[in-house]
Structures are given as C-alpha cells and as structure tokens.
C-alpha cells in the first residue's frame, strides 16, 4: 500500500510541476556529464554527516542508489542551513539532501520528493535533568540555556517558542549535543531521529518529548530546483526505482531503527 501511495503522489507532483515549470538543460547536463551535484550541510545525523572518509547516513545511501539507477556519479557540494535554498536556486547543486523538513515555505520555491521519516520537534537534554522538562513552558524559562543551529526549522521553533530562554547560536549542528552533555548549554531543539541517535550514542543525554512531540508530525524530503520538468520527472522515477528495490527500507533499517 505504501508503494502504491508513493507512486501516485509522485505522478501528481510531476504533473503539477510539468504544467508550470519550463524545460531546461539540467537533465541533459547531468546525463551528459554523468554527474549529479548533491548539496548537503552534512551535519545532521543520522541522515547525512560528513566524516573523514566522506559522507554517510540515510540520505546518502538513498541518493547513491538513485544515482546508480540513473547511471551517474554523485558529486557532493558543501552547503549550510542558512544558505540551503539560496545555493539551490543559484544552481550550485542539483538536489539538496540531509534531513530537510518538507514545508510550504520550501515547496513554494522548490520541488520536494515524497516524504519519509515522520518526525516532530523534540528536545535533547542532559539525562540527570530530563525530569525538569514537562512542557514547552518548562523550556521557555530565563534559567534555561538553549543552543540552536542557524538557518533551519529548529531555529525557527526556538525563536518563536523559547523567547524567555537564554538562546545562543552554534554554527556546527553536529557539535551541539556534546555541548549539552558537557553542561555548556541545557537544551537542543531538534527532530525525533537526531535526538534518538545522540541519546543512544551518549549516555549523558536524553531525548524528551519523543512520544508526544512539541509540534505536529511532519516528514523530510529531498529538495530540487523547478527549472526543468523533465529533470523532476526523472528524479521521481529514480526515487520510485529505489523504493521498488527496497533501498528505502534498507536505509531505514540501517539508520533509523
């Protein structure tokens, strides 16, 4: 049933963008060069993280499989959350991945492939203080130190809901959990899977609000420019092909369970 729904969602998306987007050279460029440029901040476990050996994570596995299905190689392009949309629209890469929330603001300016990994906003805190926080109001106190990463929906949540807290910004998202564990901050607002990952990796940390997230559940998605209808249609095909070959299930089992 899930495959059936994804297929028709993909057809609907392709039809909608085909009616509005003008065909362009993007697909021809990718297939001729046999290279697809993939932008990612590379700082969001377990979806995409940059390591000494390259990139790894759920989205990396899926993107590599999609590229293989198209007969092209992946060239990763470093970007950041504040510059993610700007870089996509400036043609610095052909697709953006790495734990990108699907929302109307993004889909207004770009296309997004079908959603995956349902999540809500949760908090990462020190385990010995987890019982202090029962609600957003408990987080929104002048005594609570919140560390945020700039440019994404986590920052948006902090700025809108934690105005009374002591809020600071740290540019490297992957370093924030350690700062919380070391007592240099008290709270990190993030999504379900990232919080679960770090709480399992570091016994000093606890993921709270997982069963009852602070926001309604949403999904993540790969983001694409809308300057070439043929490109969107082929990328939907590549996603469906990866799904039919159980790549999505395997990536979920490897990274999200």
- The computed structural class is alpha/beta
Strand order of the largest sheet: 5-1-6
Identify the overall geometry.
elongated
The tally of beta strands, per DSSP, is 15
Specify the number of helices.
11
How much beta, percentage-wise? Answer: 15-25%
Order of helices and strands: HHEEEEHEHEHEEEHEHEHEHEEEHH
Low-confidence stretches: 14-23
Tell me the distance between the termini: 21 Å
Mean pLDDT: 91
Q: What Rg is obtained from the alpha carbons, in whole angstroms?
A: 19 Å
Helical content (DSSP H or I, runs of 4+):
40-55%
Main sheet specs: 3 strands, parallel
Give a structural overview.
The chain is of the alpha/beta class. 40% of the residues lie in helices and 22% in strands. It contains eleven helices and 15 strands. It has a three-stranded parallel β-sheet. Helix 1 packs antiparallel against helix 10 and helix 3 crosses helix 10. The longest helix is centred in the N-terminal third of the chain and has 19 residues.
């Amino acid at each position: 049933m899930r495959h059936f729904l994804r297929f028709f969602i993909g057809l609907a998306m392709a039809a909608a963008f085909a009616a509005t987007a003008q065909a362009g050279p993007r697909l021809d460029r990718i297939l001729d060069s046999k290279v697809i440029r993939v932008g990612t901040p590379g700082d969001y476990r377990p979806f995409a993280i940059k390591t000494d050996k390259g990139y790894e994570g759920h989205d990396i596995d899926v993107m590599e499989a999609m590229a293989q299905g198209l007969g092209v190689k992946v060239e990763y392009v470093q970007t950041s959350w504040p510059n993610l949309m700007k870089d996509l629209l400036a043609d610095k890469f052909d697709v953006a991945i790495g734990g990108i929330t699907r929302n109307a603001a993004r889909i207004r300016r770009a296309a997004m492939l079908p959603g995956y990994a349902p999540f809500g906003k949760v908090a990462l805190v020190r385990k010995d203080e987890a019982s202090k926080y029962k609600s957003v109001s408990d987080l929104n106190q002048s005594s609570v130190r919140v560390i945020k990463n700039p440019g994404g929906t986590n920052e948006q949540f902090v700025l809108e809901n934690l105005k009374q807290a002591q809020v600071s910004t740290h540019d490297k998202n992957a370093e924030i959990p350690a700062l919380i564990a070391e007592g240099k901050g008290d709270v990190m607002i993030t999504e379900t899977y990232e919080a679960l990952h770090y709480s399992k990796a570091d016994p000093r940390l606890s993921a709270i609000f997982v069963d009852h997230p602070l926001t309604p559940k949403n999904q993540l998605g790969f983001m694409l420019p809308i300057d070439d209808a043929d490109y969107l249609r082929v990328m939907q095909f590549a996603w469906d092909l990866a799904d039919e070959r159980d790549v999505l299930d395997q990536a979920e089992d490897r990274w999200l369970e």
